[in-house]
Amino acid sequence: MTGSNSMSVAGLGQTIFITGAAGTIGAAIALAFARQGANLAVMDRAELDVLTALKSELLVAGAGKVHVIQGDLADVHSHQGWIDQIEENLGDIHCLVNNAGVGAPRRADMLELTPEAFDFVFDINIRGTFFITQKVMASMLQKKSSEYPRSIINVSSISVEVASPDRAEYCLSKSALGMLTKLLALRLASAGVSVFELRPGITHSNMTQPVEARYDKLIAEGLVPLGRWGEGQDMADIAISLASGKFSFATGSVINADGGLTIPCL
Fold first, then answer.
1. How many domains is the chain built from?
2. pTM score over 0.90
3. What are phi and psi of 67, to 5 degrees?
4. Is the pLDDT of residue 18 over 50?
5. Does residue 7 lie within any of the structural domains?
């Protein structure tokens, strides 16, 4: 049995591994799981004091145990060591939230895009994400069953479908993440591990802060039907639901968390 009906509270007793956990969305997701009593492995390249403060906040919020990993997702040779640490300190990983990601280093015409900028974005958004998932996937497949629901949640972006020519490398990387979701869903279906893709729209974060005024104007002009920004809590509420096991038959699904922005309309 996969354990999809074995718990009434999403997160309670589960071990959740969140990459990019110090950012706006990652921290909100971590706090949501902490409030449900989950054990948390939080990974980020932020300064250690930032991660230590996050750990304290998660424990106060109700997390069972918290394990901190300071590192760069692009450093794929460290991935197995991180997984070993998590399993030693927290036990089996039940949910991986692939939240770590970077935006285009500079918004500019596609003719100005450099190989260095392209590689920087892909090394984290796709290469790093793929190989950390590969390690978690291998660990999950070694266990034929679990007391708790198991899932992988890829936090991508509406940029999978919505093109922004001034940040081509970012859009391309997120499109690849969309395909990764499909591949993972197919590979893990027989093991009862559900895979989902969460696509935030215009959401408050460190990534969108430099263009906040531009987006404020666009939202005021009606770009987002709900008429507001997305918040980290919006994404956290969805992640908690997806990890609960109640959507297991919807594996491979995409959730557009964008206030209706991507709905085709006249």
1. 1
2. yes
3. -115, 130
4. yes
5. no
